[in-house]
Amino acid sequence: MSTLEATAGGDVTESAAVGVLDGLAALGTRVSLVSGALLHRAQPDPPLRRAWLGSGPLVLVGGFGTTDAGLRPMHGWLGRLGYDVTPHTTGVGMGCGGRSVDALRRTVERADTGAGVHVVAHSRGGQFARAAIAAGAPVRGLVTLGSGFDLYRLGLPLLGLAAVLGTAGTLGVPGAATLGCLRGPCCADFRTALRGAVGVPFTSVFTRRDRVVPWRASRDPHATNVEIGGSHLGLLSDTDAKRAVAVALAAHEGERVAPEANAG
User: Fold this and answer.
1) Confidence (pTM)
2) Which residues pair with 139 in a beta bridge?
3) What total number of domains does the chain contain?
4) pLDDT of 187-221, one tens digit each?
5) Residue 194 belongs to a domain with what CATH number?
């Protein structure tokens, strides 16, 4: 085969990979837009309680294919609770784990006003958030929603999707994870952080009806594990999910204050 033929073949293969990646991103964006709009109307905010009110910066992290529009129901609810919310959807969950963690850490550092930042993260965004904490991000508490931390429990659809994205990145698609991210050194710290101690108050919210992330992969020995009803996308918009997040954030503040009070 000539060099020209090989180059042309590579261009075709890369173009196909770009098409797959763009298609996945577009699908994720459309699902996020539609679900964010429809589920927000179908699932009202729970009655606001004084005990849930908070303040300070909070970073809301999306997962695969999530846009700011998909985060809107939870974003609005967190704003009602009193938090200054910064949405983070950089890479829409499809990038290299290590680079995605670095991007999230920078967002958290920009949001920090000196006392640390609350983080609420959905799906793969919860993986990035946990690893960002291990990398030193100034986080004061973490709430994850349908995030899979036990990679051995992830189902074949998610592993297959990771392989597709990894192939696209390996072929040179900008911003995509590579196959090396699955087992290579670039994301070794990221993978290790998914099973290590978190070091801040940590609540993992999950639903057994999750058809995207197996619920057992979301249960974590280092977290307060909270089960609610609903679907994977509903964890960003359902009434029960909003209530669980409000309760968790309030509990995290109590966990932070108690040691300081006891020390006095």
Assistant:
1) 0.75
2) 117
3) 1
4) 566 667 787 899 999 999 999 999 888 899 999 99
5) 3.40.50.1820
